Queue: 4 jobs
Job 1
Amino acid sequence: MRLADQIAQCRTPFIVESTITKRQTRLLGAADFSNVLVACPTRYSLSDDLVSLCTALAFSKGARTLACADLLHVPGEHVWIEWCEAPWIKELSRYGFRAEHAQAVGRRGALIQSSPQGRRGLIKSFWANGDNELDVLASSMEAYFDFDTEVGEDPAAPDDRNGSVISVFDRTAGDADILRRCFRFRYERSWQSYYEEARLSPCQADAIARHALGTIAVDIPVILAFLLLLATRPGLPRRALMLERLNQARMKSGKKPLLDHIEVSSPLLPEYRSAGGDSPASHSRRGPRLHHVRGHLVRRGSQLFWRVPHLRGSARAGIVRSRTVTWTLDSPTEHRPSVS
């Protein structure tokens, strides 16, 4: 079952109990977003190949999304995006992230609430590793963003909340880091109050904050990469699934209806396939050892060039048919991609 459907059908509140006082506290959880997901007008479900592409775009050494920040916008005031964890974790491991849950078969998702222009907003993260209501979780932290933030400024929060915020950044990127400039992370209201009343030591508070941050911060670059590709809409194969007939049958059998959504897949060629044989040059001199070359994203005017991650070295590892993809963006409102 898709994560959006799990949340839409979730009715169990998230309640914690103090082991000392036995006091119970209700915190924001997946069930609180049930009606929001049902009413959400735009829901995207990413294919595995598109998840891999977006993750590569997000975390490749050469990818600098800030250079394309003027192209980024959320395509609606309420947008849901979800994907399968397995290809996401597999791709993350290629870029140095520890694959602690390499066998994960769950799903992840993000709910984006944005301004009408799609340039400012709030992101909440969700995940599930089972079909039970208790397997569906919402991050205790949320992220707010403003793509129009200037250097030296802080992004404007979408509300008047006060409290501490966290900035995430890549030291090697400097001012070119879109997370540093345009994003801030904070606890959701109920979780903020809960931790404030807990009177944690600085060490405890730091450990909890780092853990909570890890449930959402790593999603953001992937979401941004998807939004960037979405700006070249005609280049992303999409299939709208209207489930009216299926839901009629489900309701007759006493089951809850499923939510309509749009399946989006990758426009790229499939990955290389293993093939035998040596290159002629290998008989005259020793070629380079087989190694992986990271992708590289470059913007030149109205064009984006993406050097696809590929293997370099012995031809025994396979043949890469194409390593460069070009997306052409004619104007902010009309984008026509070309793939080479």
Job 2
Amino acid sequence: MIVGLILALASALGTNAAFLFKHRGAVLAPPIRVRHPLRSAADLFSSRWFAIGWIVAIFAWGLHVGALALAPLSIVQAVLSGGLVFLAVLAERFFGFDLGRRQWVGVIITAAGLVVIGLTGAGADTPRRASLSALIVVEGAIFALGAALVRVSTRRRVLDRAEGLLLGAAAGALFGVSDVAIKYLTEVPPGPLLGAVSPWTLTALTAAVIAFYASARSLQLGEGVEVIAVTSVAANLVAIIGGILVFHEPIGSGPLATGARFVAFCLVIAGAALMPAPMRATPATTS
């Protein structure tokens, strides 16, 4: 399991760096058009920074899959949650963002809350088993939630910044759907072509594609750090819930763990509320 945690930590660093690269490229690309997905994707990848971010994201995703195969889902997500601190440090030191004290407090307490949620919900010595019925319910419900958030974001009265946050939350939820599906594939005996031919492989790919466009558009519309943070929080919460409901990872043992988890959820909510604030990146001049 130690190797899985190391992979998760490296994945957290790479994922946040990738998001920041993609944000820099997305704001330079033409707006994404739902009716022209291929053209929109081509426009995004024509930006050098977005392409770099995508390459880094693929590498981080590979590390993430390796971590999921070696450690419980909720523990992996707890480590990834701590990566929000990486986001804040990288954003200020290397990407021209200016985070105030409020945003730093929000990032730190959100990361701490998510870590506690993950650690109090996982037991390294607990046998893991996957429930297909729970998987179907969880994946269906989160897909519906992601679609609803995307639909709400398209309303005319929604401001660009709010639309960015809604799309970021939708993208995070769908990234979480993909994570749960991938974890399921690592837990059950491989099907045809080592699992490549599976409804859950299709589920993971579909969720990832929709999340790709939702995330890119959210980066074009919203403030970089807060949108990335909301996306990460949504993805982590969905994956942690999936770990509990689908893979029967323990909720906690005793009143102390239960109380710690309740406080941690309050920290996540409070931290998420603190993060949205005026934050401007230094404009990039090359693409």
Job 3
Amino acid sequence: MRLADRKAVVTGGGQGIGRAIALRLAREGADVAVLDANPATATDAAREIEALGRKALGLAVDVSDAEAVAAAFKSVVQDLGGLHILVNNAGITRDNLLVRMSPDDWDLVLRVNLKGAFNCTRAAARTMMSQRWGRIVNVSSVIGIIGNAGQANYAASKAGLIGLTKSAAKELGGRGITVNAVAPGFIETPMTAALPAAAREAYASKIALGRLGTPDDVANVVAFLVSDDGDYLTGQTVCVDGGLAG
């Protein structure tokens, strides 16, 4: 119970990696607010957290909307009784080759993945600065480090998160707030589960450990970073990729 009495927000926490993180934080003792664009998955995740004996909120929020984010964080502080941890996980893809990518798809991915993290970090920082303690983790991607054909918008947004992480760490460190990033590699999701066996084997062959990761692999690292065990790490990017990025 490393996170007993802590209050956390996980964006994009209704499914996949975000949901695994939200549940892991709850198992470590935190009360958790799940912010997700899908109200049904946000509510469902909150119920699962409550079943673990923790307080939970499930809020439908577009993280790219600064006013909606500010209102949501105000509700979190009021209803959960504080805010200590923020995990910026919300993200989308709109894949296409660069020359075929529409400006709208470029803008949308940057708006959700990068501006969304900015909006949430700014909203959370005010509370964390006043209490002189906080933990922020941005969920980037190895694609933001190594790039990938057909994902210029996604790669740019995830690389941008690493820059945001480093800058915010320098700005907020003096107030007892750490800011780190995790960069997952190929993670088992419903999308990867639907891939043909040959494609999955091709992905796995690029990974030093020889297997795709799981959402819990990512959640384990996040739980460490937001606990007191990660107290002296800030401005770092941890690749949770089984050795893919090298």
Job 4
Amino acid sequence: MTVNDRIEELRAAAQSAIEATTSTAQLDDVRVRFLGRKAELPNLLRGVAELPPQERGAVGKAANEARRQLEHAIDDKLTALAASELQHRLEQDRIDITLPADPQPQIGRLHLITRTQREIEDVFVGLGFSVAEGPEVERVYYNFDALNFSPTHPSRLTTDTFYLAPAQDIFDPDSQLLRVHTSPVQIRAMERQPPPIYIIVPGRVYRPDNDATHTPQFHQIEGLAVDEEITLADLKGTLEVFARAIFGPDREIRLRPHFFPFTEPSVEVDVSCFNCDQGLMPDGSRCPLCKGTAWIEILGAGMVDPNVLGHVKHNGYDPDRVQGFAFGMGIERIAMLKHGVPDLRLLYDNDIRFLEQFA
């Protein structure tokens, strides 16, 4: 028997085997038996080079043609068998539409800013504060005048505040703007409610800034407590509880003199660094978070200025009878410090790779 006769014999045997298969699994066995690495037909192709020169062309051509015919036959048979098996499964299988999806659908989660806001709210609600809200489109009166901002304060300029109509008089109490802080709600809340009052005011605020630590829109939480015999010690104790709840039970805070138009005296509040030991990392290098100072600035605060209370004196806020404290913090800043976020803009980029870290 010649080599060509053997090739034809193998082709015919394989064709018969392909036609006889009744499942895709059987078809795969046939493919391996006749076209696999150890099968005779591929080995004949590999051995063409060992044949006499006058036989190589004819044998190679016959072997290649036989292989192509069998591959096409297998592909056609696989298509037919796969369709038949699918139809059989559709006829036999019963789908229970009450079963849960597989895989389970991904459940959404709160954004890091929202999570941080709710953590802060939980701390102060636990201390007896209630949550108040107010409009984001505010009047100059509530945003500046009633909070003791002087007429020449830089924040009133159009370069520092989004006015809704730049042509309007920025000193007109009724001119409208996007609020630059949530402090206006303090005045609105005191107009609605006589003392005592203990509120926090979360919400969006707007300023024309945009860099690694500022965005045109961000979130703040203001706090206000007005009652009889409230002192700066009450403010320090309240903020100390907050710092330990958010940053860890070993945190300490310190107050540094500062200036805000609506508080007197005013303070900047620092928390002891939770990333290092007295400003130094384990390897002896300077802490990148606190810059080696062992303290991190987290918010501004102070005792409510009597001039602010004077705007709501008619509702029981007589500066000679009641006093209080106020504080304000950026929610994004708290989130960045607690979770080590290097750039504020990451919180707004909607990058799944970043957001999934806080799942």
